[in-house]
Amino acid sequence: MNKSTDTPVTSISQNSDKEAPWWNRSVMGKDGLMDDLLGKIGTQEVPEDTLLSHTQHMTELKVFGKTAQAIDDEKFAEKEFLAFAKINYLMRNDINEYEGLYESLQLLKAAIDAKHYFISIDQVELRYRGLKQQEFYNFVERLLDDHENTNAFREQLQIRLTDTLPEIKTEEEKIAFQNYVKYLNKLSNNELGLQLLSRFKAYQLDDYSILRVISNFIRNLDKRDLLDIKDLVSLVNHNYSMFEKLRDVIELDQNQSTPETYALMIQFIALYNRHGILYLKFNDLVRVLRQWYKPYQAILSIRKEYPFGTYKQPKAFKEPIPGIDIYEKYKKLLSDKKTGMVFINFSHEHQI
After folding, report:
1. pTM > 0.85: yes or no
2. N or C: which end of the chain has fewer CB within 10 A?
């Protein structure tokens, strides 16, 4: 299980009575008279360069803290959104039942998103079956399996279209082929789109309407409780043969191809459709908190290296850390008390 390795916050308080008159201050405890006295009689001074470094890190924290506060949204704390964030983390990190599903999920989602282009490409190939047209289709199949990158694919496709158009007899067919190339170019906006088209052809799965059916299936989940995985498994069971047809195309192993697996992927896609835009904003917050986290760790390290009692404590060491409230908020919200798992990693640059 992933457990939090973040350094706990110590000796940091938002509420201090250190500025109160001495007769109103407690004798013991943090910011009490004894605390203040011991801080002043520490035997060693904190080096100037360390104080400067501390000041610089605190300045960074103020900037990142204000930015995080501006991005923060109360919707981030809603139950279903948090569940989606946790599922995303599990899926991306191959944890528990989500192990090995992320790539297949990406292929399934890309196929559904590009269903219009797959269907349109198929309609042209079915309608126009002349010799020149068939030669063009065969060229496209070879190009799908052997192209250096997206730009190279588009360039070679355009060259072949330019050479082929003069040999096409009717204006209708010419327009159809120009549209055919346009659909292929649109599909190539996502490299997975070309990969999927190649796999559809390799496995001779030319009934692209199945993508529309699955898309409608997911859309019809809009009013359902997406966190009820048992309900989703039951729905998939009634349509299992439809999903099973895509097993090879989306690169699922035989032992992975179960109603439970498809339910997990369908759940993710449906949650993404519901919360995807908000999640982009949440990712902005996470990126800022990851920037915040570096100077935060530096501050903790400095204060630990020059402890109270041994070193005279400058006032800066008792200042509250800017942004700590938001950091602690999401560290708590994205943690499982029972298992100790933390569904976010502030020290890594990749998305959660």
Report:
1. no
2. N
